[in-house]
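Thread amino acids onto this structure.
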């Protein structure tokens, strides 16, 4: 059996090697490294996949979030509601633009923002909500959009971890993650479900005016070279990465199916193990399993250590909630403010999750988790 990896990009590459190599060679042969045909083609194909009017590629997922907020013309001191249990980029871009991150605690089962606690956090300065679709399933976008409409707020979806997931509204309508809010943002970091071999990201919107503004901001605030209408940035997806993503986009649904199959195996073999809790499922969302994240309680660190001793990797996403990070102490938050986020940070452990997991690997992982928990509980 091959070594078990947290993410196995090399073996995934080998399954599509000929197409990837051809896509890269095509860029090298034609020399269109910046904004070449692969970028335009990938943008169009991703828009079709997501049923969106516009997809605007950019340099990375963090840029996507920052550019989205820039496009909304928010003013210093305006408040943006988001989750404290996520990667720092979500709050980082808020602070960089001199806006104020306002945190709302998470739901116990999905780790997503608790939509029932959002309205209590709204003030006259609130201008935007950034729900994070954490670990691969969509936050309750129906309720979030209702709240946003009631209070005249923007919604920017942080969809770095859930591309391809479906959200079903109460009327039966189905939309892709990232396509529901005013702007969607995603990352193509290599380990993502749809990842390139470097940095990359994209924004998406069905609002033509917002999409046009995003395109201008991404290009130094310029529609015509050397003429600048806006304060912008330089954020582009290069043609080589776009070519790679074009190949992988065709395989995204099969990649999701492989992750879901692995998750089902984990569920079946770990659901009755004392001391751990398998991932909960949102009622209205499919789960694309960017991560497969257990709750382990007080034995989390010991379980991670014992797994590592037998060659099984695992990861803790995220060990310190954002409101307790040194960078955000000035916002006035303290321990105890968001108990579910703080509890999750002490309990979560993500097992290997990628498209190349074999049943033999999954059997070994589950067996070692069971053995370890029997010794710890």
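Threaded sequence (377 positions):
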């Amino acid at each position: 059996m091959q070594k078990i990896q947290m993410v196995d990009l090399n073996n995934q590459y080998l399954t599509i090697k000929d197409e990837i190599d051809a896509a890269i060679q095509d860029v090298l042969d034609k020399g269109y490294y910046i904004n070449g045909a692969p970028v335009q083609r990938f943008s169009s194909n991703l828009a079709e996949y997501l049923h969106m009017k516009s997809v605007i590629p950019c340099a990375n997922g963090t840029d996507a979030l920052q550019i989205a907020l820039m496009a909304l013309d928010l003013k210093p001191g305006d408040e943006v509601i988001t989750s404290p249990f996520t990667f720092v980029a979500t709050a980082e871009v808020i602070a960089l633009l001199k806006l104020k991150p306002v945190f709302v605690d998470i739901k116990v089962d999905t780790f997503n923002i608790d939509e029932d606690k959002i309205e209590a956090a709204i003030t006259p300065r609130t201008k935007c909500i950034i729900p994070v679709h954490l670990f691969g399933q969509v936050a309750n976008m129906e309720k979030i959009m209702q709240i946003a409409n009631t209070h005249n707020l923007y919604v920017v979806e942080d969809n770095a971890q859930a591309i391809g997931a479906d959200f079903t509204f109460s009327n039966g309508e189905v939309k892709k993650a990232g396509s529901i809010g005013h702007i969607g943002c995603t990352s193509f970091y290599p380990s993502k479900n749809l990842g390139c071999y470097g940095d990359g990201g994209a924004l998406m919107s069905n609002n033509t005016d917002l999409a046009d503004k995003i395109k201008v901001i991404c290009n130094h605030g310029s529609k015509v070279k050397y003429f600048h209408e806006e304060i912008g940035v330089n954020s582009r997806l290069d043609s080589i990465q776009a070519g790679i993503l074009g190949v992988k986009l065709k395989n995204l649904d099969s990649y999701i199916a492989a992750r879901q199959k692995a998750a089902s195996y984990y569920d079946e073999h770990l659901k009755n193990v004392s001391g751990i809790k398998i991932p909960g499922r949102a009622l209205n969302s499919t789960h694309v399993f960017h991560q497969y994240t257990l709750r382990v309680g007080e034995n989390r660190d010991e379980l991670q250590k014992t797994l590592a001793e037998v060659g099984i990797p695992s990861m803790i996403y995220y060990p310190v909630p954002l409101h307790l990070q040194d960078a955000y102490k000035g916002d006035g938050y303290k321990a105890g403010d968001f108990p579910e986020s703080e509890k999750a940070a002490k309990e979560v452990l993500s097992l290997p999750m990628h498209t190349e997991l074999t049943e033999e690997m999954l059997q070994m992982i589950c067996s070692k988790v069971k053995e370890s928990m029997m010794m710890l509980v």
